[in-house]
Each structure stands twice: as C-alpha cells, then as structure tokens.
Amino acid sequence: MTSPTPPPAQVDPQRLLAAHQLANEFYRSHVLDEPRALAYLRSRGIIAATAHAAPWTIGYAPRGWTVLRDHLYAQGYTEAELLAAGLVTTARNGSVIDVFRDRVMFPIRNPDGQVVAFTGRDLSGRADVPKYRNTTTTPIYRKSELLYGVAEQLGVDTQPAAVLLVEGPADVVAVARMRISVPHDDYPDPFYAVAPCGTALTAQQVTLLAQSVPPGTPVVVAFDADAAGTSAIDKSYALLREWSGPVDAMALPAGADPASLVAAGAADALVRMREARTPLVDLLVEHRLTPHLDRLHTRLEELARFDRDPSTESLAIRLNALQGVAGLLTEVADRDQPHAAGLALHVAERLQLNPLTVFEAMYPPAEPDTAERDSESPDSHAEPADQQATSEPAQDGRDADPLVGAGFPDPTTVGHQYAGACPDDAPAGTWVAHDVNTGHSAWVLAEGVSDSPADRLAARLAAQVAGRVAVLVGAHQAVEIARTALHAHFAARPGSAQGDATICVLTSFDGDHPQPDRGRFTVAWAGDTRAYAAGGRWFTPLTVDHTLREHATHPNQRYRAAVALLSAPVRPPATAAGPREQRIVAQTTDPGWLATADLYDLAVTWSAAQTFRDKLTSAGVAADTVEQRLRQLHPEMMARYDEAVREGTRRQDAMQTAARYLPDALRRAGDGALTSSVRGGPIGVNRIDLPTTQILLAGRGMREADPQRLREAVVDHRRPATAIGNLRRLAGDRTVAVLVQPRPDRARDAMTAARLARQDQASGSDVRQAPPLALPARAHRASPAAAPAAAPTR
C-alpha cells in the first residue's frame, strides 16, 4: 500500500512531531543493547548513562531495512506521513525503507524541546556509506535554523561562562559531561557547547544562540583543525562580527576535537581547551598567513638550490601575505585598537616586515579622483620658482630622516617656511614631511608624558609614525595610527616599562583625502602638546581641554582626600582581596587609565596595592606603576619618597612622610591629569578657517608661559628661525617647538571667506555660499624673496 507524499499544506505538523517522539523512544530503547554503539560513544567521551538519560536520549537505529517503518505503521502512521517526516525514504526499486540504519542517533530538538529531526553516525564502516546522515528539510525542520544542544542546556536560568560552537553532536555531549566529571572547584565557570545540524553556521543559528544566552556571553569557535574546520572558522567570523561579547576560538591540534580530548581525560581536556583558547580573529589571521608562508618556505628552498638571490621574490610574497590580512587588521582596529596593535606587531614579526609597513597597509592613502587626475596636466599645480617659500633650519635643529618606501615620498620642497627646536636631551620628537604629488605638508611634535626612557621612546616613535602618514591620511588619522603603533610597540613590555606621549599634528589640508592645492590647515592633538595660531592682530590657542579641569564636583575636596589617604598608615587586610580590590589593582595595566588618573585615583590604587601586596601577585607591579606615574605628576614629593626608601624606610611609612610635602590645594582643578594621550582618550581636531600668518606647535615647557609674551615672541617675525630663538629665550634651552609660516598665498588669499566658500562649492558641498565677511582693510606687504631650498627639520 503506497500513497504519494502529500504537499506540506496537507500534512499535520502535530502528527509529524508525534512520529519523531515515537522514533526517538524506539531508537533509545535499542542503544544499551548494541555494544558497538556504546563503544563508539565511549571513544567520544560519552558514557552509557549520560547517553541514555535525559536530556540527551541518544539512541541506536537497528540494521534492518524497515524496522522503524514497521514500528510506526503499527502505531497508525501512514507511509505519506513518514515520508513527509523524513523518517523513511523511497529506494531505487520503489520500496519504502528507513532513512537511518545501523547508526548512533542524536535527536535534534526545536526551542520548545520537541524532537524534530535526527543526526545519525554510521557504525558499519563501509566506504560507500556517509559517516553522518541528517534529516532533510521537512515541514517541521530546517537545519539552517536550529543548533544541537540549545534546547537541552540553555534556558533563562543558565549563565554559561562561554558557549562553544563545535562541529558535531558528540562534541556537545562530551563537553556537557565535563561539567559532571570535573570537580566544581577546578571548573567553577563551565563551558556549554552547541553544534550546527549538518550545515555550516548560519545567520539564523547565530540569532537563535543570541536569544538563548545572556548578552555579552563569550562565544568560542571550536571546529576541527582540518580544511573543513578552517573554512568554517572563516565563515563564522563573518557571522559573529556583531556578537555582543568576546568571540574566541580554540586552536586545537590536527585530528583533535573536544570529544576526543574529553575521551582521553576530562580534567586534562579542560586544561588543553583553556590553553588553546585565543581570539578568533588571531586564528583567522594565522590561517590567512599560513599559505603564503608555506609558499615562501618552498620558494626559498628552490632559490637556494640554484644559488639565486631570494630578496626580491621573498619581499613580494610577504607583501602579498600582508595584503591578505590588512583589511582584517583595520576592521579590528575600528573596534579594539590595543588588540589590533598586538596583531599588527605579530604580523610584522611573522612576515619579517617593518611595523610601519604593516600600518601603511592598514591605512592606505586614498587614490586621487581618476577624472580629476586625467583632466589636469602634470604641472598644473606646480608653483613658479619665485613663489616657493622654503624651510629655514633653526639653531640646533635636525634634518628629518629620509622617507623611503611605498607611499612615503622623500620631502624636498615643503613650500612653507618653518623652523623647529628639539634638543637631543629632550623627551620629544619632531617630524616634517611633504608629498610632492599633492603639494601638501605635515608637521608633528610629540612629547613624552615624563622624562623616563620609555616615554622618550614613545614620543619619538609617535612623531615618526604620525609624520610618515599624516600627508597621506590627514591629521586625525595620523594620531590614530600613532596610537596603534605605540600599543603594538609596548604590548609585550611590563607595566613599569610602558611609555606614553602627547602629540600635535598639523597638516596643510583638512579631512583624510588630500587633494592638490586644496584644503585648510588642520591640527589634531592628544594630550597637552599645544598649538597656537597668529594673525595680524590676534594670537589664539587652537587646542583645548588638555587637563581634567572638572574631574569632580569639588576637585579640591577630592585632592585633599587623596593627600589624606597617602598620609594615612597602611593597615593589614582583615580579609582576602575581593573583586573590587582586584579590579582596582588591575586597572594599572590600562595606559588610558594611567594617562587620565588624577591624584585621588592613584592614591586609592596605591593604597589597595600596598594593602594586598602579599595576597595578590600583581599588587607589587601595580604599586610600582602608580609610583612611576606619581613621579611624573609630583616629582618633588616622590623625590623625598625615593630618598626615604633608599635609606631603608618601609614604603608605606615613606609615602606618609612624602605626602606632607604636597600643596594644601590644587592650583587648578585636575592639575596635572591629562584628558588624553597618544595611547588613550579623545583626539581633538580643529580646522583653521581664519587668515593665519604663523602656527606654533609647543611642548609643555611653554604651558605656563604668559600668552602675551608668547605672542610677542612669535608674531611680527618674518623668519621662523628668529621666532624659535625668541621662544628659547622665553622658555629655556630645552624648548620643544615647531613654528610654521604658511606661504603668502595660503596665508592671505586661500583663507578668505570667499575662497573658502568657493572651495566648498567646488568640492561638492551642499552648503549655500555665505556672503563675504566684512573684514577690516589691512595693508598687504610684499612677499619675501624665496630662500634656497633646505631639507625639513626633525
């Protein structure tokens, strides 16, 4: 008796659900009587009691062709219903037979806990039989929408430490068994595992998982270490980009999976799985690099056999590998700059490239508009020789290093007069660069937050990195890239060797797409390195919010509380360090926190670190880090502290004594506490829209200088070198400064309101042209004679 399969609209879904429930009970009743099924489950770390019991109810499909079919016929089901349910199929000879035969059966449940499908693992070992077989799409089941293990484990009361995405149902059950086999003290935050049902991970499955766990739950991709697993990891990354919590992976060795590790020993499996856990994007980067590195190794061996120079081909292969991961690194940097910095450093080491080459690939310069480029002659923006202004090296100035390499043209003629001062013993770095293709220039001044060797290095590295890229990507992006570079450079160094700097970047264009002969001077900054602009009748700061002036409602009360805390004795702890104390101590590893912490923040952290110095392994390093920061902010106090410690005084007693030398009150709210630095905090940007005759980038040596005296030193001096000499006499021989005098056409004509409006209109802006401003009449002086070309200062 055969009847055709009815269309889905004629099938009663409740009948199909009931048929699957009966099938599950039927398979389950056979599993304990089949030694081969139990042996397979043991090989996958699953004991019989776990398999047979709820919630898993794993079963076994007998070898006969029609065993399940006959059983369900006896229960009143028709052939049409069983075909629609996907439990039977039509053989080549027209007979209706069971879909699953001689297989270990894993029931798949919908979110309501109802069995809707099966995954069967073959036990016959025949080469012509697929190892796994899955229920096809039916009216009650679409494999792209469900995950094995969600209904059995995840509910409103479940708080998983992490959810593992594994390849097969045996891995899911094996990971679940770890929660029983490993003592709670060794496994207080257990993993939960789920698996796609015979398909690659899909967007619907990710949505289901997000609905089944609390927001922020970490996801760990633990697919097999084979070609299929590698492909699955690549696809998973694309689907998990917007996941609300951390997204990691388990880099398991080839041939291993969670179930095989558990079968070898649950406790050891837990250790190995924890050790193998790494951010998913790190594993993805390694997957993308590996083919190129394998190719490089093979090619080097071939060239060595023929005694040929491998340098050219080696570089080409390594640059191809870099291009394969550059977009991924940029994407990570948009979400997590410290992580991207570490990855960039790792890629540079793996490919044996300069880290700057990696940053250049992450932030490539924009291509000029093709139509515009083709419509202009090569010399359309060349200036007459008599109109080109050049740089003047200041006393004790230094030439910039030659800028070589892709995307970094050697600056020859900057076109604006400038001079700089950066003594060799100053904890600072300056850089000047020029792009001959666009005619634009960039000037950078970076200064360490202290005079420590690490901060000196941070300042010079930040200046070099920002200077190299600013003419390509703009002032703001240059600071971002310098931030990434510092994170990468100091990623592997201990807390006491961390360096940081403040920075100011000036470009002769705005935005991040330089166009020839277009743009307004723009300054970007992070920290208290400052910029000023001068006109014929005015002198004004361009940078703001350097210190935390309103860190608290009553800043002086906060300051006095910090003094009292440092002056108080440190008492032994009555209890072990709790989560709050651990969090306070741990925050010293965050460069952004260190850059913005005021005296009260540092006092609380130092006190906690001293209190739990013998109970927390990280407390000693935290106390040293805070002391280093205090030396930067309050050198007089810390000089007395260091002297007392050298004489043998206990640290807490030395701090009590030294704190008495702090002032009674702040000179201003948030004194000495930066809002930002190169390594953390907001980046300020200011586009200069007024006619400007001088732009000054100044180090902190001029922070307390009277603005009127600064103006007198800078304004009305036609030679920047003369103005730099005046600034040195004002602020001392260790003055760090760069003074730029825009060329006459940029200082006057290019900066008028009418010219700015025309420029906006030409660039496609939809802002209506404003009427010309009524500017007071002023006398125009003749342009100075052009000086001989000189190399830019550094």
Q: Report the biggest beta sheet as strand number plus sense, adding barrel if it closes.
A: 6 strands, mixed
Helix % is: 40-55%
Average pLDDT level: 78
Our measurement of the CA-to-CA distance between the termini, rounded to an integer number of angstroms, reads 93 Å
Q: What can you tell me about this protein's structure?
A:
The chain is 42% helix and 13% strand. It is of the alpha+beta class and 794 residues long. Helix 19 runs parallel beside helix 22, helix 19 (555-567) crosses helix 25 and helix 22 packs antiparallel against helix 23 (619-633). The protein is elongated and about 105 Å long.
Detail the topology: elements first, then pairings.
Blueprint: H1 13-31, H2 35-43, H3 48-52, E1 59-61, H4 67-74, H5 79-85, E2 88-90, E3 96-98, E4 103-109, E5 115-122, E6 132-134, E7 147-148, H6 150-153, E8 162-166, H7 169-181, E9 191-196, H8 203-212, E10 219-222, H9 227-239, E11 247-250, H10 258-264, H11 266-276, E12 277-279, H12 280-305, H13 311-335, H14 337-351, H15 355-362, H16 370-375, E13 417-421, E14 428-435, E15 440-448, H17 453-473, H18 475-489, E16 501-507, E17 522-526, E18 530-534, E19 539-541, H19 555-567, H20 579-586, H21 591-596, H22 599-611, H23 619-633, H24 635-646, H25 651-659, E20 684-687, E21 694-698, H26 707-714, H27 720-731, E22 737-741, H28 744-747, H29 753-762
Parallel strand pairs: 8-9, 8-10, 10-11
Antiparallel strand pairs: 1-4, 2-3, 4-5, 5-6, 7-9, 11-12, 13-22, 14-15, 15-16, 16-17, 17-20, 18-19, 18-21, 21-22
Using brief descriptors, characterize the structure shown.
29 helices, alpha+beta, 42% helix, 794 residues, 22 strands, five-stranded antiparallel sheet, 13% strand, disordered C terminus, six-stranded mixed sheet
